[in-house]
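Cont'd.
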Amino acid sequence: MIQRLFVGGLVAGFAAGLFSALLHFAFIQELILLGEKYETGALVHFETAGNAPAAEGHSDDNGDDGHSQDHVDGAAGEQGGDSALTRNALTVLFTGLIYAGYGLMLVAGFALAEQLGRKIDTREGVLWGVAGFVALQLAPAMGLAPELPGSVGADITQRQIWWLGTVVATGGGLALLAYGRSVAAAVAAGVLLAAPHVIGAPHLDEYFGSAPAELGAEFASRALGVGLASWAALGWLCARAWNSGRV
Amino acid sequence: MPSGVTAKEIEMNAMTQTAAKTGTALASIVFAALVGATVIFFAGHAQSATLHDAAHDMRHSTGFPCH
């Protein structure tokens, strides 16, 4: 049992993490580098420049897609070959690690379901993966949107506590919604799912972001899209690994 | 059936073994979940400078509160 849990969770999880890292470099890394150029002041958004007229600034900063791409290429180039390679290798390693952690939790859930008499097939595994995405990324993102570098948020410890509470409540709520058999379970699920958002995430009274709003929005959307694809793959891989380890 | 061993004793023995097996399975499940949660904590939340810098881009793209 323990071997099946660890081999299934870690191997499937790390593989899903490598897939996620691929998507990270295809969709997200360029926006992180661009956000850092605004964070360091290498690029200045018109609203933070102070005296630039809005209409003129708008046409300067948001001309077309090719314009953005120029900044991205510049940012990547300035890192230098070695440091960029190290940075990206660490991103691949840690994305693999975090998904290995997710994978272990997911397979532990499969094992618990099996103890309770419910076999998790590959299709149900994908649903568990999507539920994991909702619990660990989508629900927390409704209070604390994925942050582009340069964003300024409330106290980190308070945000982490709200994040953890939201993950636990949402995970519990979804499990009750999916497998609960009574009206009381459905009501409890609703309360658990809503509670973190009724309480509300910690926020500052003012906004301090240095990057254009459009860039932050694009980053958040892509982060969530990549998360959904990665979690669906994680659920599929974990269910395959878990069930193939049965014999 | 061996002499001196009743059907009830065999049944009791089987139940004890099943209970022990379930107990071991639950311990394994809790252990795996704890290791998973620990990995998530260190990769996603720990604020030591080295870990933060190494995991920085992943934390941003997976929506962990980073700074």
